[in-house]
Amino acid sequence: MFSFERLARLRAAPTVFLVAALLMPAVALAQEAPDAVVKRVATDVINTIKSDPAIQAGNEARIREVLDAKLLPNFDFTRMTALAMGKNWRTATPEQQKRVTDEFRALLVRTYSGALNNYRNETIDYKPLRMNPADTDVTVRTLVMKAAGSPIQIDYSMAKTPEGWKAYDVIVGGVSLVTNYRDEFNDQIKAGGVDGLIKTLADRNKGVAAK
Amino acid sequence: MIATVVRHPAVKRACAMLAVVLVAGCATGPTANPDDPLEPMNRTLYSVHDAVDTAVVRPVAQAYVDVVPQPIRQAVSNVFNNIQDLFSGVNGVLQGKLDKAGDDFGRVLLNTGFGLGGIFDLASMMGIERGNEDFGQTFGVWGFPQGPYLFVPLLGPTTVRDGAGVAVRFIWGPAQYLNSDALQWGLYGLTYIDLRADALSASGLVDTAALDRYTFIRNAYLQRRRYLVYDGKPPPEKEE
């Protein structure tokens, strides 16, 4: 049966769609795409390293400052540490979780700044990212081209968070950082509990060499 | 043909070593990693390797890097890589990856012919990528199990499957075709130092990153090999 009320609702429908369509890009723009995050951060860090005289002179403290400011905010270290600890994460106290995360972060920064010291004008090739708008977990693939020798594939596992896309694993030439540390963390916890793991990580960060 | 291979001194030595390894490795703890049932023995072998590496191999490789100019070291690497590419092509065929094998054989022809016997890697400059296949990967693609992880002093991390691959590769030469022992050993030595020099920065990285270097190297090696067998697209590992 004909009703004016239904007609009014039908007429309103296109307007609703139009408003929704106008709002959608604004929502999408608010969150930078994961591959765009990787590209922006990598370009920024590399440009800073190339142009900073203190870093060029081999000042590691300055490298760490740059990493702290530009790189680290784009990593989800809590998730990374939880993944590396596996089932031990749930049995650790919040205080222990925080300390492992802090020491693990420091260890990765030390390693990374050491690796950057070997940086020799490599260029990065960003692979096209195929993702659905609804995806909350993607892998961004890059290929680091060296002046000589075979290129190295570096992939970033990234998850959507309220503060944008953040990396929770780095896979270098097929070697996942998180997977590599899983056995190590497990062995340390088996031998000395979570506090043993914290102590080993802290020792390593103080420069005590591994066996 | 097989009899000749078995009678080869290198193979005899490898078999004897394998027998020792299998007998010695039976002592395993309850916490052992399933990929590394021989861990107690491997750890001993690793410490031997590490001592020799620290005292001799690493300093020699470092001296090689310090003394020999980069373009010459690059030429040496290129010549060895050119030989590797030939074997990569053979393994590409054995795995049925004819496109990849074609690239490798094309690389060898180009680099041997126009790159002065492989001194210049023209193929890479033209964007033809290396196949990076080897016998260990071929055995993996054929479905042979990986077998226990092994740490062989001087050779480094391997598995029974990869070790068999290295043995096959070793028998095929090309050093065997040199008729002077001195030349043969010289070639082995240079190959070795070239590889070790290439890994100097990586081993520095392990020193910073590892909580326990033995475990770190083992995990990285096994992950890397899995990735290579699946040509960079390994299926996801099941979570615990």
Q: How would you concisely characterize the structure shown here?
A:
Chain A is an alpha+beta fold and 211 residues long. Helices cover 60% and strands 16% of the residues of chain A.
Descriptive key words:
heterodimer, A: 211 residues, alpha+beta, 8 helices, globular, B: globular
How does this model look, in words?
- The complex is a heterodimer of chains A (about 210) and B (about 240).
- Chain A is an alpha+beta fold and about 210 residues long.
- Chain A is about 60% helix and about 15% strand.
- Chain A is built from eight helices and five strands.
- Chain A has helices spanning about 5-30, 35-50, 55, 60-70, 75-85, 90, 95-115, 175-205, and strands at about 125, 135-145, 150-160, 165-170, 175.
- In chain A, strands 1-2-3-4-5 form a five-stranded antiparallel β-sheet.
- The longest helix of chain A is centred in the C-terminal third of the chain and has 29 residues, at about 175-205.
- Mean pLDDT of chain A is about 85; it is low at about 25-30.
- Chain B is mostly helical and about 240 residues long.
- Chain B has one domain.
- In chain B, about 65% of the residues lie in helices and about 5% in strands.
- Chain B has eleven helices and two strands.
- Chain B has helices at about 1-5, 10-25, 40-65, 70-95, 100-115, 120-125, 135-140, 160-170, 180-200, 200-210, 215-230, and strands at about 150, 155-160.
- In chain B, strands 1-2 form a two-stranded antiparallel ribbon.
- In chain B, a hairpin with a 3-residue loop joins strand 1 and strand 2.
- The longest helix of chain B is centred in the N-terminal third of the chain and has 29 residues, at about 40-65.
- The N and C termini of chain B lie far apart (about 45 Å).
- Residues about 1-5 and about 20-30 of chain B have low confidence and may be disordered.
- Chains A and B meet through helix 7, strand 5 and helix 8 of A and helix 10 and helix 11 of B.
